[in-house]
Amino acid sequence: MHNLLSNLKIAVPDKIYVKDPESSDLGKRIVEQSILLINELGFDVFTFKKLGKRIGSNESSIYRYFENKHKLLLYLSSWYWAWIEYQLVLETHSVSCAKEKLTKAINIICRTTKEDSNFSHINEVILNRIIINENSKSYLTKEVAQENKDGYFVIYKRIVQRISEMILNASPNYKYALSLASTITEGSLHQHFLKEHFTSITNCKNDTSLSDFFINITLNTLKI
Predict the structure, then answer these.
(1) Which fold has domain 2-222?
(2) Whole-angstrom Cα distance, residue 17 to residue 71?
(3) pTM higher than 0.90
(4) Are 21 and 38 in contact (CB under 8 A)?
(5) Distance CA 115, CA 127 (A)
(6) Closest by CA position to 115, among listed 107, 106, 101, 126
(7) Mind listing the pLDDT tens digit for each residue in 165-221?
């Protein structure tokens, strides 16, 4: 199984990048160091000029992979959600009980990220921190409608669809499965942010309480 996963390639919509960063050592270094630099500086302060200096390459070489830093953030976000999706598929496919499968999925969405040795050039722990702090900047733009049509958010939406299907399998007559699924997915990021920065306004102090909170909401809502 480990050998199989080590050959896994996370697929990101190809319209997001100019050249696939997975196709070269420079591309992988751009992704690797951009994660570290965005974490250090914040996305607003991050620039390709600073990244170029960090990787010891011309700024122009980064533009051969990404049109701008917004597209880079979209790439990182898409990669993260694709990585979450593969965990969802891997860890829930053999679970036959609908309720158990749904609670397992919620635990996966809510848990604190651990580094995955299958992807050596990406620090998933730091990337998770970026998604918690910066993910909304990938879609809170004037171009979001067109980017959505172009398929930039297809992986994120597919995760919501997967959880929605699990909700309906557990409670076939529930009318708001997509809304509940998107609330779990986006709400988990918000609660992680609150427990890091605004602890006085959340009861979710750790992974267990965060998962328990969303499982409690879901099971009580579905009455199962």
Answers:
(1) Tetracycline Repressor; domain 2 (1.10.357)
(2) 7
(3) yes
(4) no
(5) 10
(6) 126
(7) 999 999 999 999 999 999 999 999 999 999 999 999 999 988 778 999 999 999 999
